Amino acid sequence: MSVQSAAADVDVDLRQLFASLARNWLRILVFVLVVTGLAFAFASLATRHYKAQTQVEIVPRESIYTRPAGNADGDKPILDEQGVATQVQIISSNEILKQVAQKLGLSRLSEFDETINMSSLSRVLILLGLKNDPMDVPADERVLKKMREKLNVYGVEKTRIIAIEFSSEDPKLAAAIPDAIAAAYIAGQGAAKRESNTAAANFLAPEIADLSKQVKDAEAKVAAYRAQSDLLIGGNNSVLATQQLAELSTELSRVRANRAAAEGTADNVRKALQNGGSLDSLPEVLSSDLIQRLRERQVELRANIADMSTTLLDNHPRIRAAKSQLADLDVQIRSEAQKVMKGLVMQADAAKARENQLVADVNTLKAASAQAGEQQVGLDALQRDAAAKRQQLELYLTNYREAASRQDRNYVPVDARIVSPASVPAEPYFPKVGPITGAAAAASLLLAAVFTLLRELFSGRAMRPATGARFEPIDEVPMPPTVHQEPSARLEPPVASELANRAAEAPLPETVIGPEMIVQPQPAVEAVSAAHAAPVAGAAPMAEAKPMAEAKPVAEAEPVTEIQRPRSVLGEIDIEKAAEKLIASGAARAIFVSPEGDEAAASAILVAREVSDAGLRVLLLDLTTSGAASRPMLDSGLFPGITDLLASQAQFSDVIHADLYSDCHVIPVGTANPIRAMRAADRLPIIMQSLTTAYDLVVVECGPADAQGISRLGSDATEVFLSMLEPDDEVTRAAVKLIENGYPDLTLVTPLGHEPPGTPGRRSAA
């Protein structure tokens, strides 16, 4: 036979694929109507559930007038995202849910306790052990479980609002429960704050009493230590010795300055008197009252002498008497200046004596101040301890007054409030009849369409050769009449019957080539198959086959009188060596060509069994027209096979059979209509690829096929064998043609020396 294409030449015919939707519209419509009706009935009869929502805002409720003093965080957010999540968990805690359940009496409702009004079916299931007995769980736990199933507490995104949703069969109950949960949460927060405030007041009262005693003792220790150490406090809150030292140091500096000034002035006066200089430039001399009066008398005499000199001569007695008085005044002024100098010297001596006394006193106070500094260290430690206790006591007193006032007035604001109480829902949130019915209709329509498309795709009816693919005719040999079954004797699927009826509308002319017959579909049939389909090699027998005597050769064979058997190129091996070669090479496919007819097909059977006995998974695919390879393995030719698979009348599990005499598997020729099978010949490479994936070795018996006929069956890991009974010219020509057409590694194998494959008793049944 001849099969020509490749797996890559197969494409999807979209027109044929989507046309299947129109062909199966009634089935799709019925499926959609059934599913939609069931959904409508479910939505109409289902128990209605109502949902209500309460919103709680987490916000500070403390007023700026009542906020504790020193609290600078009053205007900051009290909770972040994690804080809101924490409050969500608190709201949905068991404690709050138990309070709400007890307040509303939920344990008496069958909606929350399935033990109330339990159905007979549930009781039977519990007795049979098919259902857990709800009585084993405490009543509170059963109610809490149902409440959690119906409760949804979450924080609204990017806000400090917590939403509390609850669903129930009773709309009033659906609104009452979230409000009760919110109220219980706020009450619990207030109780927690009051408890915290009371605990703080109870803690601060004894602490204040203890601290008051400790502060008193600490201050007493400070006073006793100060008195013991003579660390008396002066006016500037410093130790008396230190303060006196500072004052004496100041006085000493002043005395030293006065002494230096007196000594300097005395030196100036002394120099002026010794050098006969003017005394008018000395401030201390000028400050003397006597010297000032003498200076005035001197100025007056000089004025009189000047007046008299205008009328009298210098030797006049009056002028001489005036000049004599003027000289006496100078002597008196200098005498008074000396007295001033002596006074300054005495003042400097007194200042020096005072300085010496102050230096002695300062040295004494330095020693006392150093001793006081050493004792001040201990005093400072006692003062720090007393100050810390005093500060802590003042803080405790302030906090205690605030806590006591809030406790007395019962003023503890909670940082939460209900901003949106739940309202009784008027419409149920489930079930929504319209949306459920519409969704069911759309989903069922989509599923039905997808199922129809996948079925059409996997059946191969929507496959066609790719653009540019080449197709050659199929060599077909008529099968014996005993294997053929009439189409009327089989129950065909609806799609296969439709394809057969449409194919029957166009005539199928037959052309005979060489010793075999070729059936080539007309364009009308090719359109039905969605591509120029190349039929399967070795398909099932045709109902009407022309005898071989009437066959018209397509091409005359060349003379082969001088062609010799190419023993230098091909080596003749037996069955065992052929099996060893396949195992050693790791081939995935082995193609056997039998130019001498059905008897030579025994080589493929024997090699397949030999490799299977070696432990490999082997499958033999029979593509002969007479079933020469599968009949000895199954003892029958009526099993479904490759033609049934190509005609979409069987699945892989239906056409793969076990060899009766070995562990090998076999796919026979089959019983389907060969015309229908030939239309899906493009699926053969896909089938071969699937078989190669599932088995370690796929052995294909092709009968008297040529190189063009086996080209579709090969792959990279393929070995080609030529079965030979006698080295005649027919075998030699077939071998040379295969070598010349791209199979140089052809191997000759002979079944001679082995028992026929179907001989009973030679092998044990698998």
Computed Rg: 64 Å
What spatial form do the alpha-carbon principal axes imply?
elongated
- Report the biggest beta sheet as strand number plus sense, adding barrel if it closes: 8 strands, mixed
* Mean pLDDT level: 76
Order of strands, main sheet, comes to: 10-17-16-11-15-12-14-13
CATH third-tier fold name of the largest domain: Rossmann fold
Strand content: 5-15%
What is the count of DSSP helices, taking H or I runs of 4+ residues?
23
CATH architecture annotation of the largest domain: 3-Layer(aba) Sandwich
Report the uncertain regions: 1-8, 468-570
- How far from one another are the termini? 31 Å
Helix content: 40-55%
Task: Describe the fold and architecture.
The chain has helices spanning 14-23, 25-45, 81-91, 94-104, 120-128, 139-150, 171-228, 240-275, 283-286, 289-308, 317-409, 433-458, 494-504, 523-528, 575-585, 602-613, 631-634, 642-646, 652-655, 674-679, 684-694, 707-710, 729-740; strands at residues 10-12, 50-57, 151-155, 161-168, 417-420, 463-465, 475-476, 510-513, 516-519, 572-573, 589-593, 618-622, 657-658, 665-667, 697-701, 718-723, 747-749. Mean pLDDT is 76; it is low at 1-8 and 468-570. It is α/β, with parallel strands linked by helices. It folds into four domains: 12-46 and 431-462, no CATH class; 49-199 and 414-420, no CATH class; 240-409, no CATH class; 471-554 and 566-766, P-loop containing nucleotide triphosphate hydrolases (Rossmann fold), CATH 3.40.50.300.
